[in-house]
Design brief:
By secondary structure, the protein is an alpha/beta fold. The chain has a single domain, classed as 3-Layer(aba) Sandwich (Rossmann fold). 39% of the residues lie in helices and 26% in strands. The strands form two sheets. A six-stranded mixed sheet has the order 6-7-8-3-9-10, sandwiched between helices. It is globular, with a radius of gyration of 18 Å. The chain starts with a strand and ends with a helix. The mean pLDDT is 92. Bound molecules: adenosine-5'-triphosphate. Adenosine-5'-triphosphate binds next to strand 2 and helix 1. Adenosine-5'-triphosphate (ATP) binds next to strand 2 and helix 1. Keywords: ATP-binding, Nucleotide-binding, Transport. This is Methionine ABC transporter ATP-binding protein. InterPro entries: AAA+_ATPase, ABC_transporter-like_ATP-bd, ABC_transporter-like_CS, P-loop_NTPase. GO terms for molecular function: ATP binding; ATP hydrolysis activity.
C-alpha cells in the first residue's frame, strides 16, 4: 500500500523580480521518510522550505501540508498547523537572553493552554533535552554552548511540540565533521523514535548519505532528479555528477 503524503507541492512558481527561483517545482514527501533537497548555493532550497510553511508566499502553485492547503489557511489555522511542522533554522534562532529551559518552554507558551502547563511543560522540557543528549544544560545560557550543542537544543525545542514533520535548513552547516556526523545521527534517531517525516536541506554529502531515504535535486527551479543517494552517486548524468565529484 502506498504511504500517505504529508507534503505535496504542485506546480510551484516563485520569482523575486527577474530572478525566477522556483519554476514549476513539484515534490511529494511521504509519512515517516527523510527527504533531502539538494541544490547548489542560491538554487532556491531555503525559498522552497519557507514556501512550505508560508513564511514566503508563492506566486502560484499549490502546497498541501498534512492535508491542509496552505494557500487557504487563516492565521489561527496556520498557527495550529505550525505546531505539527517543526522548523530547525540554520541559525538555530535561540534566544540569547534566555536559559535553555526558557528557550524550550517558549513554543509551549504559544501552543499549549494554560491549564496544566507547569508540570507537563517541565516534563516535556526534560524529555526533549534527554532526546538530544543534553539533560545537563537545562540552566545554561546559549552563549555557554558549542555550535553542535546549540543545534541540539534547537532540535529539542522543535521536538517539544511533537511535530509530525520537521524541516531542517542545512542542519550541519558550520559544524566540524565529527559534530556534523553526530547531528546527522540524531536526525535519524528522531525519525526512528517519533516516526516523523522530514525535509532536510543540505549539500553536506555525509549528512545526505546518513539521513536520506530519498534525495530530490533542485536545479534551474525544478526537480531535476528524485532517487536514493546510492542510485544518484552512480549516475552518469554530468549535471548530477557535478554534485558528487
Ligand atoms: N526575500 C528575498 N528577496 C529577494 N530575493 C530573495 C529572497 N530570498 C531569496 N532570494 C533569492 O532567491 C534565490 C534562492 O535563495 P535561497 O536562499 O533559497 O538559496 P539556497 O539554495 O537556500 O542557497 P544556500 O545553499 O546558499 O543557502 C537567491 O538568488 C536569493 O538571492
Amino acid at each position: 500500500m502506498e504511504k500517505a503524503e504529508v507534503i505535496t507541492v504542485s506546480d510551484l512558481f516563485k520569482s523575486f523580480g527577474e530572478n525566477h527561483v522556483l519554476r514549476d517545482f513539484n515534490l511529494k514527501v511521504y509519512e515517516g521518510e527523510n527527504l533531502v533537497v539538494l541544490g547548489k548555493s542560491g538554487s532556491g532550497k531555503s525559498v522552497l522550505i519557507k514556501c512550505i510553511i508560508n513564511l514566503i508566499r508563492p506566486d502560484s502553485g499549490k502546497i498541501v501540508v498534512l492535508g491542509k492547503d496552505m494557500g487557504l489557511l487563516d492565521q489561527d489555522e496556520l498557527d495550529r498547523l505550525r505546531a505539527d511542522v517543526g522548523f530547525l533554522f540554520q541559525s538555530n534562532a535561540l534566544y540569547d537572553s534566555m536559559t535553555v529551559r526558557q528557550n524550550l518552554l517558549f513554543p509551549l507558551r504559544r501552543h499549549w493552554s494554560r491549564v496544566d502547563r507547569d508540570q507537563r511543560a517541565e516534563q516535556a522540557v526534560r524529555e526533549a533535552l534527554e532526546d538530544v543528549g543534553l539533560a545537563h544544560t537545562l540552566h545554561m545560557m546559549p552563549a555557554e554552548l558549542s555550535g553542535g550543542m546549540k543545534k541540539r537544543v534547537a532540535l529539542a525545542r522543535t521536538l517539544i511540540l511533537r511535530p509530525k514533520v520537521i524541516l531542517y535548513d542545512e542542519p550541519t552547516t558550520g559544524l566540524d565533521p565529527i559534530t556534523s556526523r553526530e547531528i546527522s545521527e540524531l536526525i535519524v534517531k528522531v525519525q526512528q523514535k517519533y516516526k516523523t517525516a522530514a525535509v532536510i536541506i543540505s549539500h553536506d554529502l555525509n549528512c545526505i548519505r546518513l539521513t536520506s531515504n530519498r534525495v530530490v535535486m533542485l536545479l534551474d527551479g525544478r526537480c531535476y532528479a528524485d532517487d536514493t543517494y546510492d542510485n544518484l552517486i552512480q549516475s552518469k548524468d554530468p549535471r548530477i555528477r557535478s554534485f558528487f565529484d
